[in-house]
Amino acid sequence: MARTLVTGNHAAGAALALAGEANRDARGCCAGAYPITPQTEIIEYLRAFNFTKGHIVPVESEHSAMGVCIGAALAGARSFTASSSNGLAYMNENVFAAGYYRLPIVMIAVNRTLGPPWNIWVDQGDSLSLRDAAWTQFYCESHQDLVDTILVAFRMSEDHRVLLPALVAEDGFILSHTQMAVDIPAQDLVEKYLPKLNLPHQLDFEHAATVGGLTWPRETEKHRREIQSAMENVPAVLNEALDEFAAVFGRRPDGAFTAEYTEDAETVLVACNTMARTLRRVVKDRRERGEKVGMVKVKLFRPFLRDAFIHAIGSAKRVGVLDRNHSPGSGGIFWGEIATTLRQRPDVLLQDYLVGLGGGDVTPQIIEEILDDLKQRKQAEEPVWKEVAA
Amino acid sequence: MIELTIYGRGGRGGVTLAKLIATTYFLRGKHVQAFGVYGAERSGAPIQAYMRADDEEITNHNQIQEPDHVIVVEQTLLGPHVLSGLKPDGWIIINTHEAPESFAESLPGRRVATVDANAIAVAHGLGTKTVPIVNTALLGAAGKLLELEFADVEAALAEMKFGGANVTVAREAYDAVVGQRLAGKAQPSKQRAANGPVVGILDEEVGGMPVIRTGTWASRRPSRHELMPACNDGCPAGNDVRGFVQAVAQRKDYDAALAIILKTSPFPGICGRVCPAPCMEACNRRAHDEPVNVRDIERYISDHAVWPQPTRPTRNERVAVVGSGPAGLSATYHLARLGYHVTLLEAGDEIGGVMRTGIPSYRLPRHVLDHEISFILRHGVEAKTRQHVDRAALLKLTNEYAAVFVATGLQELRSLNLGNLAADMVMQGIDFLDQARRGHVHLTGQRVVVLGGGNTAMDAARTALRVGARNVRVVYRRTRAEMPAIAEEIDEALEERIQLDELVAPLRLHNNATGTVLTCQRMKLGEPDESGRRRPVPLESEDAIFEIECDKVLLALGQSGDLSILPEGSDVRHGEQLLGLTAAPVFAGGDFATNAGTVTAAIGSGRRAALHIHKTLTDEDLFPPPPAPVAGPEAIRMHVFSHQPREKPAIIPAEVRRGSFTEVRLGLIDEPGHEAAYEEALRCFSCGVCNECDRCLTYCPEGVMLHDGDCRYSFNFDYCKGCGICASQCPRGVVFMQEL
Q1: How far is residue A37's CA from residue A118's CA, in Å, rounded to a whole number?
Q2: Which end is more exposed in chain A, N or C (fewer Cβ atoms within 10 Å of the end residue's Cβ)?
Q3: What mean pLDDT comes out for the span B617-642?
Q4: A361 min Cα distance to partner chain B (Å)
């Protein structure tokens, strides 16, 4: 394994290329590519890579980028792409199509605030706007997490029990443009981990078919139930994928939720991406001062594994959600999921904190203030807007 | 943990510097983090870059608030915000040529280190003087202050594959950086200044982007200059062609256009009819669709504008001009306008030279010629005809006048021996034209052969037709491509059913049973001769010799000057004074000196002679300054202009015109609601000279250009980022970018 100092985007590009190259003895790989800040370096890496059997196709828009992935995936190629922010919004229709076509496409979402007004910094609103598109969604906290999750995502998505595309998110700039150390796996090990893609409904000249034609309501109902079943298979498939990863690469990536310091925590904060790392530091410091605080890092957002989340918070009575996103007319999107989940736990005081919207720089200090607020709170209120001076 | 903040500019290596420093720690087994914070995604905009290194895994991802040290990549970035959060013992490493002591007032009590990374980088070819690449040098400087071994610096450079000069500059900076703690009390570190009130979309005062003097982001600046239009460059008379065309295009001001022409040429009506138009040959529009029809615009101006009043002499000196062709008349005109008394001496019995005797009236109507000559003479000029000036007379003139200009043209006519019959049947074309215009020669029913390929040959052929010839053949020993005549003249002659025999050389005239014949030899083109044209060589075949029945042969084989007028031992050099041989200065010009062969070249020659004479007599130099570079097609953004064919001038059909001397070309004809010359002038690109189209200003994305006067534009360099759009959008090469 090569330990190297690279940006998050470079690491993501490398992982995608390794996965794509691993399919060279089957139908190869393909990406539809369109650049957008802060994702561009991924596309540049892929275009520069010398695939044995694969095409990185530059197109005129993100909508077409996903279109290319859909066509290539239906032809049996391992397909992937990347986008952010308004690029993800632009490909919206085709993102849903990829999910509904049950294609194991992997897309890196480099989280960036949706505009207008124009904003280049990190916010999870863009990937979360695709919450209902029948994709699994992973949120990564570090370069290593990103590389490992990408490989896990291919394995899980291509499993016949799942066959759903996977969105893998990383923070724009904070990971994408930040240089940190990471192990990039070797090609032969990736090939040990990822079998060749075998798409059951791969298009085939011998047996002509049309994909996605008109269906009646009852077929649609069945289609949606199939997708839900696939989502319900994710925990088991993901677990296997993580176990197999550990066997091949010698480390086990994080699962859907990572509970830390929660054994006897009274107060738990929930976060994803790099904010979870800053949170971890605060929790560690507070623990050293004797406070019973803990944290849950969310990695898998779709499917949202309710039972696993209930298990993760343990016996905590106060749960605060750090949402770097906002659904107007309601509140943070993670909070909404967790609120539904915690209907089994009416004893928990659940409070949403909207923090770092539009890319505000979330410091340990801000998280300390949130923690203090949560600890002394008498009752839950509507989402708290925690402004970040930036 | 060690934390560094770097203040740099986008696109100039600040973030890479953070990565390089991080790499030095990474290679020594530390956990590291390096990233930039981008605002305006734009080269030159201020950015910060951050570097963290620690023995433990780094989980903090926010921006650095309390750096251990800061690096200022460019001195212009210094400001109080640089101190924000900086620990008391922290280094401020500045890329500057100044010494640390220079910052005693602005950074008292601080540890300041300086290195001239700009000079080091540029000396080793890294970047340019405007944008030097200083990060690898600053890596060396930082390494020294962070107490790294140079080997660590080298290892980082190798890891990131920065070789060559990068290692050299890192070493130089590592050795050269100096630092000290400055005297005085350190100012408490201020937090970063707030950005001002936060405004919402529905607020009354919506506000906008913070006011940032983005002029500091620029590495180049726009500027404006004038280039020489290609048409002006091509005009032998030195006319401001672009100027008079634009006077029509911009303001339909024909009087102003005429005034522009009259500054350099007194013959717009003549040139507008007979000039071969090298300006149109040079016209950049040719590369886009068709050249601007300058000739017919000039003619239109001459025909429609109001002519100004002639000036009167104001000086005492008297100048003599010998020869009243276009060079002599041009010199007369310019000398008269400079205030001199001019005496114009013409050997023939009419003023005008070859314009009158050699150019037929179907090309140049007499009234146009007379009008323009009259305009010149009314400048207080004394004109004398039947004054033949020989050498003795010339020397006498030099005693009577302050200066003399000799422009007697080409009196010697080249001839050819065609045998004994020549005397009756053969005539010089030039003489024929003069006779024909006086009505003294008719060729009714005759079969005419014209020998030659220049304008005189065409004129003689077409005139022969008009004085009754049964048929006319032009015999030329090379091909049409080599004929020096103006292309349109050849076209019109062929339309008039004049036959052109290419690659034929005449041998001799003789009588046979039926009448007189001209025996001819067919030719082919061989190797080039001294003029560069391929030499005609006789064909060897049996049918190479053939006969043409003819009654008249007109010779148009070329002319040369009669130099006997000049004092013995003198040499004709165009425009130069014949020194030391005469009492008063004598200048020579026109075809007599240059054999250039066009009215327009003669006009230029005459004008230069006038300026030479003026300079010699008064020491005043009125010659135009050296021209700016020429705006060729590469200076013009052709894609900006739509395609528009030229206005078609009117012409009398061949069958009608071949029988009379009425003017063949009628120029641009107006129609109701359609001013033809104006429409044609609109096709002019105004190459190299601003015509206030305002395209630069319209496309400026920052709105930093002002149009604040006649052809005056200014730039607000406080905000101009040097994007270069104004320069790329200027269709005519006026706006350009300069490195700062």
Answers
A1: 12
A2: N
A3: 95
A4: 6
Q: Number of helices (H) and strands (E), helices first, in chain B?
A: 25, 31
Residues 6+ apart with CB under 8 A from A188: none
Nearest to A322 by CA among A376, A363, A263, A262: A363
Tokens of A301: 């957002």
Helix A8-21 and helix A143-158: axis angle, to 10°? 30
Query: Are residues A179 and B33, on separate chains, in Cβ contact within 8 Å?
Result: yes
pLDDT at B422: 65
A281 vs B contacts (CB less than 8 Å): 59-60
A187 touching chain B per CB within 8 A: no
In tens, the pLDDT along A253-282 reads: 999 999 999 999 999 999 999 999 999 999
Q: B199 to chain A: which residues are within 8 Å by CB? A: none
d(CA B111, CA A226): 67
Name the pairing type of β-strands A318-323 and A384-386: unpaired
B34 touches chain A (CB under 8 A): yes
Task: Give the C-alpha separation, B588 to B351, whole Å.
Answer: 19
Beta bridge pairs of residue A386:
A355
Q: Which residues of A touch B19 (CB under 8 A)?
A: 5, 179
- Partner A contacted by B24 (CB < 8 A): no
DSSP state of B43: T
Size of chain B, expressed as the number of residues it contains: 740
B36 shares contact with chain A (CB less than 8 Å):
yes
Phi, psi of B371 (to 5 degrees): -60, -45
User: Distance between CA atoms of A88 and A168, rounded to whole angstroms?
Assistant: 13
Give the residue ranges of chain A where pLDDT is below 50: none
CB of A211 within 8 Å of a chain B CB? The answer is: no
CB contact, 8 Å: B32 with chain A?
A: yes
CA B154 to each of CA B125, B139, B150, B571: distance values in angstroms, whole numbers, following the listed order:
19, 10, 6, 74
- Report the Cα A241 to chain-centroid distance in Å: 16
CB spacing of A363 vs B36 below 8 angstroms:
no
* Angstrom distance (rounded) from CA B181 to CA A185: 48
Quickly list DSSP for B552-563: EEEE---EE--G
Q: At what angle do helices B326-337 and B599-618 cross, to 10 degrees?
A: 40
CB contact under 8 A, A278 and B22: no
Determine the residue of chain A that is closest to B25 in CA distance. A5
- A171 touches B: beta carbon within 8 Å: yes
B35: contact with A, CB 8 A cutoff = yes
Q: CB B549: neighbour CB atoms within 10 A?
A: 14
d(CA B473, CA B506): 12
Minimum-distance CB partner of A361 among B26, B34, B63 = B63
Q: Please choose, from the candidates B288, B295, B282, B286, the residue with its C-alpha nearest in 3D space to the C-alpha of residue B631.
A: B282
Instruction: List all residues 6 or more positions away from B267 whose beta carbon is below 8 Å from its beta carbon.
Output: B326, B329, B330, B372, B599, B603
Listed residue (B430, B674, B418, B373) closest to B548, CA to CA: B418
Q: What is the pLDDT of residues B105-136, one digit of tens each?
A: 999 999 999 999 999 999 999 998 888 999 99
CB B536 within 8 A of CB B524: yes
Tell me the ipTM for this assembly.
0.89
Judged by CB atoms closer than 8 Å, whether chains meet at A362 and B41 is answered as no
The answer to whether residue B64 scores a pLDDT higher than 70 is: yes
CB count within 10 Å of CB A200 equals 7
CA-based nearest residue in chain B for residue A356? B62
DSSP string, A218-242: HHHHHHHHHHHHHHHHHHHHHHHHH
Closest chain B residue to the Cα of A389, Cα to Cα: B194
Q: Do B26 and A5 count as a contact with CB atoms less than 8 A apart?
A: yes
Q: Do B61 and A173 touch (CB under 8 A)?
A: no
